[in-house]
Amino acid sequence: MKTTLVSKENNEAKLTMDFTAEEFEEEVNKVYRKNRGQFQINGFRKGKAPRSIIERHYGEGIFFEDAINNMFGDHYPGAIEELELEVIDRPQVDFSEIGKGKPVTMTIDVKLFPVVEVKDYKGVEVEQLKSDASDEDVEKELEKLQKRNARMVVVDRPAKDGDTVLLDYAGFVGDEQFAGGTAERQELKLGSGTFIPGFEEQLIGAVTGEDKDVNVTFPEEYGEKSLAGKDAVFHCKLHEIKEEQVPELDDEFAKDVSEFDTLEELKAKTKEDLEKAREEQYRNMAKDAVVNQVWENNHIEVPASMVEDEITQMAQELDQQLRYQGLSLEQYCQFTGKDMAGFREDVREDAEKRAGTRIVLRSIGEAENLEVSDDDVNEEMKLVAEQYGMDQDKVQEALADSMDYFRKDLMVKKVIDMLYDEASVTMVDAPEPEVTEENKDASETAEDAAAEEEK
């Protein structure tokens, strides 16, 4: 088979795949051998009729269509790779006259990944937050570090809000004990809101060894319908009360949790790390702002096939995220009252922007003659290996079949870095976060979870 690039312009290409008469005949024979068992011809056992007899009964071209399809399927991917064409849609294929003893020419028209003219992409004006960390910021980080190194200590006093108690309980509605309302030596942090409203508050003031009845009313919207809205009593027995003791913030603390000998050294390192993390975060936010502005300056027409492919990719990404939570995309659609068609329409605008932005960025790379070197690839693989805690050889092995996509993504990254370097970036003070009861509680909950995980 011979592959020829006939033309390539305006984001379209025409190519031919030429097969000799012998190659076509060989493929027809393969199809005959594979399918002859489907034919019953009088005078022959099923599957034993010669090809010439089958063709006499059903026509000379009985096996031609399958042969052509097989030849196209086997050779088209290699032809595209050989000619280094990045195709974005199904090809349009025409055939020469097909017949026994004749060569076959397939003429193929394909749409290519668009390269467009991009304007106003240098000198984009954006703001970037300053990464300065105040003494208060450092103190908050050290408080988190204290909480992560806190100890739970058994105390001999009445329980108070914030304590963790170890208890048995058995729940009753009237005189009948209900299923799922019994536990032994259950840990419960008072004030966590883990149990039914009103339960934890009634344990405040209780002492170790005490038997205590806790009276509650199940919420009307309680998940177990047989208990919703009903009054219940839990017979409880406290076995233990523990309080959280955080270490003193001093030089000894610094020695215990770090490689430093003094608290001042730990503070300095904490400030340095905090500012470094913020600098990376705020730089990436500024890069996103640059890319968004370039997209706004260059609204292009995005091929419909690329939008559809992007929507499919977004659906797969969401499905993967949901599966980590024990759900599926189908269940998500049920919960939100959407079907897949509705989901695809909801994300269509974002998908068009994602696909269009990629076209714009790669077109800039073409215009600027940017290249991805082997050193660039190795450096990026090194970063990926560090991020996932893998050997670089393993990363290279895992990416072996998708190296072309890896290089294209790396090109986009290089373009974004160039745009940021060429942008007019104004450094501004980061706004003070607004403290509300809602985000305060969320922050405390997150810190508690981190502390528990650390222990």
TrEMBL record:
Pfam families per record? FKBP_C, Trigger_C, Trigger_N
Major location, coarse class? cytoplasm
- The enzyme's main class, written as a single word, is isomerase
Gene Ontology BP terms: 'de novo' cotranslational protein folding; cell division; protein transport; protein unfolding
**InterPro entries referenced in this protein's UniProt entry, alphabetically:** PPIase_dom_sf, PPIase_FKBP_dom, Trig_fac, Trigger_fac_C, Trigger_fac_C_sf, Trigger_fac_ribosome-bd_bac, Trigger_fac_ribosome-bd_sf, Trigger_fact/SurA_dom_sf
Q: Does the keyword Cell division apply?
A: yes
List the keywords (alphabetical). Answer: Cell cycle, Cell division, Chaperone, Cytoplasm, Isomerase, Rotamase
**GO CC annotation terms, alphabetical:** cytoplasm
Acidic residues bias located where? 444-455
Location in the cell reads: Cytoplasm
Gene Ontology MF annotations:
peptidyl-prolyl cis-trans isomerase activity; protein folding chaperone; ribosome binding
Which stretches of sequence are listed as region Disordered? 429-455
Reactions catalysed according to its record: [protein]-peptidylproline (omega=180) = [protein]-peptidylproline (omega=0)
Q: Does the keyword Cell membrane apply?
A: no
Q: What is its EC number?
A: 5.2.1.8
Q: Which part of the chain is the PPIase FKBP-type domain?
A: 162-230
- Function comment: Involved in protein export. Acts as a chaperone by maintaining the newly synthesized protein in an open conformation. Functions as a peptidyl-prolyl cis-trans isomerase.
Please give the HAMAP family that the UniProt record associates with this protein.
Trigger_factor_Tig
Family stated for the protein in its record: Belongs to the FKBP-type PPIase family. Tig subfamily.
Q: What is known of its domains?
A: Consists of 3 domains; the N-terminus binds the ribosome, the middle domain has PPIase activity, while the C-terminus has intrinsic chaperone activity on its own.
According to UniProt, the name of this protein is Trigger factor
Native organism is Hornefia porci
